[in-house]
# Entry
Amino acid sequence: MGAVRPWNFSAGPSVLPQAVLEQAAAQMLDFNGSGMSVMEMSHRGPEFSQICDEAEADLRALLGVGDEFAVLFMQGGATAENAIVPMNLIGRSANRQADYVLSGSWSIKSYKEAQKYGDIAQAASSDRVWRDGSKDYPPLAWMAPVQSWQVRPTAAYLHLCSNETIGGVEFVDWPDAATMAALGAPGVPLVIDASSHFLSRPMDFSRVGMLYAGAQKNAGPAGVTVVVVRRELIGHALPICPSAFDYANVAKERSRFNTPPTYAIYIAGLVFKWLLAQGGLPAIEKVNQTKAQALYGFFDQSDFYRVPVHPSVRSRMNVPFVLADSRLDAAFLDGARAAGLNQLKGHKSVGGMRASIYNAMPIEGVMALIDYLQWFEREHG
# Structure
């Protein structure tokens, strides 16, 4: 593709596999001899029907889910799902109750949005952040232990964000049926916002009632949202739920109830095929483990940088870090851009830095970042 591309550490929309971009470029004007770009196709025509059906089948293969789940391609991003989820599921509770685990910025947004639609309670909060006494630095982002969660047995669902993109907190040991029973809430299904680590590792769907994810991290471009929901949970939409956001309608029409984000689904389908060619989620997880271990390993031996997340819940995908002297932040970012390392500035709400190392970021990019981190520390430490 010509000149060497810079390494893109954006939290989203994020880096896509180069092979996917090259294939999309080759098919831009003519998809498989149709004479049309995918952008120009009818969403009900045979060409796009094949694209959409293959994308669903490939995603099911990656996730290992059967027909007990509906797999939907929707619009509005995970932020829209903050409203769409309660509008579809809270009606399962006679009192319109749902409980939320607050683990960071995104779960708090979900919690606040859901309050418009029913009786929403906090099952847990990580406001009481962990303080590590072994080092002299500020509190670390943390995750409240499952045993401390308070879940109402009458809740329609329990919502959690399993990877907080801003805070860099990842939670994968989701409660199973026995744990939910021990919490006094047997049968309350889990609803998981997995946006920023979706497809980065195998996930145990036996513990999931519903999972949703904005595609723009690991699954494709912005514009399509993946929803994987047990069919038994569908059919309880509130009267105020728009018909295009009613899971029952979208499932019945195989994501083509209305015009879907066709090109975004096409690109996501190419990403699914790329992942299958890599060996699926177990294979990509090994790569992601290697990348995360290398980056965190560097930070842990440095006194110049700090990761403000407790080691037990560090995200493999989103690595926030700060410099010992924040007055060097601008120089750090300027130097990074000059070195071909882009989008390292932390979220505006927390500052600092953040390296998002999603599936499409190769180990070479992580090593280039580590080289720059070492150089900057030598120059300014």
The first strand starts at residue 7 and ends at 8. The radius of gyration is 21 Å. The chain has two domains: 38-276, 280-380.
